[in-house]
């Protein structure tokens, strides 16, 4: 009944089974599963506890109880449940996989890799274990082994979008752009709900000067998730580089509406306002960005330049000192200065410092 979507009928059957035999652990576990599915974690926990109390060797109930603990953020308790599931069933691949996921989230990479490997030894066709172990190996710096895991995942499931994307990411980091793009395109071809390959392919298109293709990728990301503020900022940046500043401004405005504390969006909105001649609006947005992120060198320098362009000299000396300190720090760290050379010549700063810029 549950498999057919008849949840209320299934609920009634489980209750009737428990009424007939209060010691029927499977009925308690199945009842817990219903509450887990509707998000009532407390009820689910209560019934899973009853199931494992009645049948301590009930591996599935221990596993699912661990899943409830994990959903509640009680990770150590979840680990204990997964370990009890493995005591009851030593070859339980899913328990190893879930245990590994917690270790991975806690950045205990060696433990995560060990448990994913154990999961695969228990079930050589455990697709997600290969993909997840690949992520753990990559994070541990064992990139060649990670590639082997992702490839093993694809042998079992050729259209696995995450494995395709993960391989693309590795080749992107290796600057093998064409190979990376082919994996991202393959991932996009097999799924319509995954944003990361679209975002990454957009970066490649942008680097290649294919702005229209990059914009199309970001637009698809926003179709998947209209509240993706990062995609709005990235599309706005692409519009701006493409000379479509008015559209960039609209994207930045939408981004700060969705995520008001996103300093980068305020900063980019300010730059777009500045480029389109709206200096006062630019100043307001630069100031908002600095309120959110006081240590934002590019914004501090751009704000000073914009204030100078409208002859606003309030706190002039303090701001120039701050900008001079930023420039010295950036040059010392071999970073590209946030002040352009011709702007520096016009500023009352040390001439030798301007020459260094």
TrEMBL record:
Give GO BP annotations, semicolon-separated: protein O-linked glycosylation
Any one GO MF term held by the record is: protein O-acetylglucosaminyltransferase activity
Q: Which keywords belong to this entry? A: TPR repeat
SMART domains according to UniProt: SEL1, TPR
| Keyword presence, DNA-binding | no
Q: Where are the TPR repeats?
A: 25-58, 59-92, 93-126, 127-160, 195-228, 229-262, 263-296
Recorded protein name is Uncharacterized protein
Organism equals Aegilops tauschii subsp. strangulata
